[in-house]
Amino acid sequence: MEPVNNRELKCQAMVETILKEAKKQALHEFKTFPRKIQIKLKNTSEDEITVLARLLNIKYGDYDEIFDVRDTKKLKSDLLSFFVISKEVYDTEMNFQEHGYNAQIRRIMLQFLAVKKIDYLQKRIDAINDTQMPMAKEKIEWLGTTAQLGYLVQQLIEKKYILESKKISKRRLALLFFEAFQIMNLTKTDETTFVYFYNQVLKSPGFTSSGKEWVTIKKNLSTKV
To answer: If we measure between CA atoms, which residue out of 144, 148, 158 comes closest to residue 212?
Structure first.
């Protein structure tokens, strides 16, 4: 019997191979998905966003770990732990099991595929919502950076001074701010794009923790949400 550390090395290489192949197969199978959606939209009397929202809310069967595939580090760790003690890919004597190998590729591929479908449907819905939002005729001039305003909006939402809901998502809240303020890009030559501003609302800002001291917001205790 081979040492455990050698087993771990072989399993680690197997994990990398399985993830690479699973992503490749998911991308291949996803290519037909947008066309299928167009057929669904064409053959229904309902409006586009209703159909897309219904598809987005479909329960994806056995995809219990569907969102774990976004965390690559955790996914690799979980798979490695599973393979080291499992006989599905390598048995106790490190003999290769092709059936188990293909089964694992299929399982992980379905998870990657489901995530790609969800992302696609959400982007379609977001695009429709964006076009339906009224555009402001005049804007307030924002003199700070895009990252600062994004961080401010982020804090107002997190500290419960502004509430996102099913009717008004974080993206739509960001769009309202974007349409209310004139936010210049880094070179001060033109307005920044909504995509860039929204990314600043979602993620940690591009300035250091000390740079956040210009605005400190305590949690709103007047709301029970």
So the answer is: 148
